[in-house]
């Protein structure tokens, strides 16, 4: 109890600073702030400029593609890996370490590594062509139509290990009697996973989805490290848009408006989680 009381001033300070900074940002998104913040309100002009910007629309589309693919593939790959490790295989701890290791790296390091791997002159394309397939082409970071998928590969490589660990913890929490009853009834393993185990792991899936969603909205490091938003603006994302306008374009008002829209995206991700987590508990007692 004493430790909680001692932590309260720090908690209130952190929350207070966050709330004040958030309100300050939202307020100045309605101003014409350029190099320095201004207090003169101009209404929704910054938001109109934002949504009239082709660059912002492209960044939203890229984030939507990256987000949808990241959620689906992260959950599927992470769950499959966790299910395989849950079979009490030999060297399980070694495989857990190998799969989780990429998560320990910074996004910048991951981006630079995958930039090298996906570069035609040195990476996969060069290796395959050196083996005799001269017509083989694999250059996602240089193709505007698929560049976001090249970034997605790096994101999945780094984040899937964490999803696997969360899923594995959820699987280890399933009562073994469930598996025994399924085997006695002759239910195939895949049906047991889909119709019994996965519904029992709902809290794990909700938490995992929130973690993935928060990482998606903040996507910046991988893009900068791999493509710097290129080719052209083909891999632009909202976080990079905010950074470029606030620090590169000296247009604080536009950057604040974009960051406020990102905050709205975070709330959209958190509100369903809060409802499922706390609303569900209240209904069930």
UniProtKB/TrEMBL annotation:
Its main location: membrane. One of its GO terms (biological process) is transmembrane transport. Residues 60-273 form the ABC transmembrane type-1 domain. InterPro entries: ABC_transporter_permease, MetI-like, MetI-like_sf. CDD domains: TM_PBP2. It is a multi-pass membrane protein. The keyword Cytoplasm does not apply. Keywords: Cell membrane, Membrane, Transmembrane, Transmembrane helix, Transport. It is found in: Cell membrane. The chain crosses the membrane at residues 7-27, 63-85, 97-117, 146-171, 192-217, 256-276. GO terms for cellular component: plasma membrane. Belongs to the binding-protein-dependent transport system permease family. This is Sugar ABC transporter permease. It comes from Marivivens niveibacter.
